Amino acid sequence: MTDLTRLTAADLAASLASGEISSVEATQAHLDRIAAVDGDVHAFLHVSDHALDVAADIDRRRAAGEHLGALAGVPLAIKDVLVTTDMPSTSGSKILEGFMSPYDATVVARSRAAGLVPLGKTNMDEFAMGSSTEHSAYGPTHNPWDLDRIPGGSGGGSAAAVAAFETPIALGSDTGGSIRQPAHVTGTVGMKPTYGGVSRYGAIALASSLDQVGPVSRTVLDSALLHDVIGGHDPHDATSLTDQWPSFADAAREGARGDVLKGLRVGVITELPDSGFQAGVSASFREALDAMAAQGAEIVEISAPHFEYGVAAYYLILPAEASSNLAKFDSVRFGMRVNVPGGTVEDVMAATRDAGFGPEVKRRVILGTYALSAGYYDAYYGSAQKVRTLIQQDFENAFSQVDIIATPSAPTTAFRLGEKIDDPLQMYLNDVTTIPANLAGVPGISIPSGLAAEDGLPVGIQFLAPLREDARLYRVGAAVEAVLVDRWGAPLLERAPMLGGNR
C-alpha cells in the first residue's frame, strides 16, 4: 500500500478528488507518523484533537457532491505564531502558555474554508526571535536529517514537520528569513511572499513592517497551491495589498513543463563574498547556477553595495518594533500573571515579563527600547531606516538589469544544537542573505540545491524577484527544481536518513 505521508500535497489532493483515498485515511497516516517520530523531532507543540473529525466532514461533503477547494482534505501544520480558536497559541513563549484565541488568523480561517485539515501547531523560536528554534520555551526542535542539529528558525517546527513527512505542507512566517533559512537546512521549499500579499491578521506580531506569512512544503507546486489559498486582500490587515493575484499553482506548473529558463537574466551579487560561506554551500550554489545556464539562463553580475549593512540595520529595526509590539504582554491585557504580594502594578508587570520572556526576547526588547530612546532615536533607529531605503534602491537598480536575483539561502548547513546559542552575532549572521528581502518587502523563495560535500546536509538556493512578482518565483523555482531533480534522479528528501535514505 502507498505510504500516504510520502505523497506531495498535490498528489494527495488528486487522490482525494478521485476517491482513491479519503481524507480520514490521509489524516490518520500523518497522525500516525507524528506519533512515531515527533518524540525525536519535536516539531509540534500541540497536535489537534479534532483533525479526524474535520477530515470526516470533508469526506462527507465530497461524497455529497459539494464543490471543494483544490487542497480539500489535505493535512496542514500551523506555526504557533498564528492564532487558532481550537488549539493553544503560544508563539513559543511561556508568557502565552495555554492561551486560547477567540478568533482564527486570516490564513488559518482561509485554510479551513478551503477544506485543509489542521494537524497541529508547530514549534518556533519564542516570538519568532531566532535562527535555530533553540529559543522556544518548550524545548528545541531537531533536524530530521541529523537529530543533533538545528532545523533553522524561527520556523524550525514547520520545516522539520514537512521534512520528517509529518505533514505535506505547513504555514510559516518570515521576518528576516524564518521560512527560507529553515527550508535551506532541512531540504524543503520555503516562500516569503511580497509584503502585504498574505494577511498578517492573527499573526502574533514581532516586527510589523517585516513580518510576512507564507507556505512551507516539499515542492514548489505545493507551496504555490497553499499560497493560492492564503493569499489576497484582507480588510482586517491595514498593510494588505488590494492586488488581484494570478494563480501561483498555474505559474509553478508552467515552470515545471515550460522553457522559462531560456533567456532568463539571473543576477549574482558581486559584493556577496565566498568568505563566510561554507565551501559546500558555495559549491552547491555555483552548481545550481551552472544547471540554469545549461538551460539557457544568462548569469549576470550585479552590484548591491548596501546589502552588507542589512544585518546591522535589521537588528535595530526589528528590536525597536518588537519592543513596541511586545509591550502588550504586561500581565494585564495578555498572557500570564505573576502575583507580587503588596506590589504595585509595575512590580507585577516586571515580575511577569521577567518570568515569562526568555533571554533572547529580553535581549532584543532591551536593544529595541534603547534604540528608540530619547537622544538615540536618530543615531540608531533613524539611521537603520535610511539603510533600509538604500537597500530598497539596490533592489530597484538590480531589477532594472535582471529578472531575478540568486543567492545561497544561508551561509552554512545546519549547525549542531548548542553550537551558537551563546554567540548572538554568529546566530544573527545566519540571515545575512535573507534579511534584505524583508527590508525591501520583495518576495523570496528557497528551494533545495543539493547536499554539501563535507557533511552531506541539505543546501538551498534563494531566488528574489521584484515586488508583486511572486508568480515569477514560482515559475523559476519550479523550473530549477525540475532540472535539479532530473539531475539527482529523485527529490533530495528521498536521501534523508529518517527515511532510510543513503546520503
TrEMBL record:
Record bears the keyword Cytoplasm: no
Alphabetical keyword list: ATP-binding, Ligase, Nucleotide-binding, Protein biosynthesis
Enzyme Commission number(s) from the entry: 6.3.5.7
Active-site residues per Swiss-Prot or TrEMBL entry: K79 (charge relay system), S154 (charge relay system), S178 (acyl-ester intermediate)
Record SUPFAM superfamilies: Amidase signature (AS) enzymes
Alphabetized InterPro entries for the sequence: Amidase, Amidase_CS, Amidase_dom, AS_sf, GatA
Reaction catalysed by this enzyme: L-glutamyl-tRNA(Gln) + L-glutamine + ATP + H2O = L-glutaminyl-tRNA(Gln) + L-glutamate + ADP + phosphate + H(+)
Annotated GO MF terms: glutaminyl-tRNA synthase (glutamine-hydrolyzing) activity
Domain Amidase, residue spans: 25-473
Pfam families (alphabetical): Amidase
Top-level taxonomic group: Bacteria
Protein family per UniProt: Belongs to the amidase family. GatA subfamily.
Described purpose of this protein according to its UniProt entry: Allows the formation of correctly charged Gln-tRNA(Gln) through the transamidation of misacylated Glu-tRNA(Gln) in organisms which lack glutaminyl-tRNA synthetase. The reaction takes place in the presence of glutamine and ATP through an activated gamma-phospho-Glu-tRNA(Gln).
Subunit structure: Heterotrimer of A, B and C subunits.
Protein name: Glutamyl-tRNA(Gln) amidotransferase subunit A
Organism this protein belongs to: Microbacterium pullorum
Lineage: Bacteria, Bacillati, Actinomycetota, Actinomycetes, Micrococcales
